[in-house]
Amino acid sequence: MPRLFVALEVPRNAAMSLSLLRGGLPGARWIDVENFHITLRFIGDIDGRTADEVVDKLDRIERPEFQLALSGMGSFGSKKPHSVFAGVTQAPEMYALQGEIERICQRLGLPADPRKFTPHVTLARLRNARTEDVAHYLSGRGNFHTAPFTVNRFVLMSSKESVGGGPYLTEEVFPLYEAGGGWDGADLRDHPV
């Protein structure tokens, strides 16, 4: 069974902006543009029945679409950096969606994610990168940002067992409803029964 995770896709314009950040960091293994994403919940290796239950429950989520932008840069692993990433703007709707997905996974018996949710797009995995090189790379790119974009769906993705970075495959797509597009009963008021 492939490794599963729930994610938000990065639209093409934002992905192209991210691609311009590639290079200039010794020891970096750059993620391919088509594999950029924002992980909402890592699920891991699960059996087919559990995967079907996850899909069924995720399909019942009803949340509005929302706006996001990518902003700022950082690295994970303070003493020994292991990856560099682009940050994601704070969107309450994204945190609410992520929280609901986390609760669903725990109700299905999956262990809680031990890491605090830190929305980001991984740009590169690092091997034997010097802290000074990472700091220098980040210092020249700290003002990175993209134009806001609309998130109108989330996806269940899979990855082959590897050291991370793809290739990833979209297994299922879950639409978010159009903000302000909810039913308000207006047509009943206009057409009395």
UniProtKB/TrEMBL annotation:
Active-site feature positions: H37 (proton donor), H120 (proton acceptor)
EC number(s) from the headed UniProt entry = 3.1.4.58
InterPro entries registered for this protein in UniProt? Cyclic_Pdiesterase, Phosphoesterase_HXTX, RNA_CPDase
**Broadest EC class?**
hydrolase
The UniProt catalytic activity note for this protein reads: a 3'-end 2',3'-cyclophospho-ribonucleotide-RNA + H2O = a 3'-end 2'-phospho-ribonucleotide-RNA + H(+)
- Motif range for HXTX 2? 120-123
Q: Where is this motif: HXTX 1?
A: 37-40
Q: Which key words are in the record? A: Hydrolase
Q: Which residues form the Phosphoesterase HXTX domain?
A: 9-84, 91-166
Presence of keyword Hydrolase: yes
Recorded family membership: Belongs to the 2H phosphoesterase superfamily. ThpR family.
Quote the HAMAP family the UniProt record gives.
Answer: RNA_CPDase (MF_01940)
Read off the NCBIfam families from this record. 2_5_ligase
Described purpose of this protein according to its UniProt entry: Hydrolyzes RNA 2',3'-cyclic phosphodiester to an RNA 2'-phosphomonoester.
What is the name listed in the Swiss-Prot or TrEMBL entry for this protein? RNA 2',3'-cyclic phosphodiesterase
Organism equals Shinella yambaruensis
Gene name in the database record: ligT
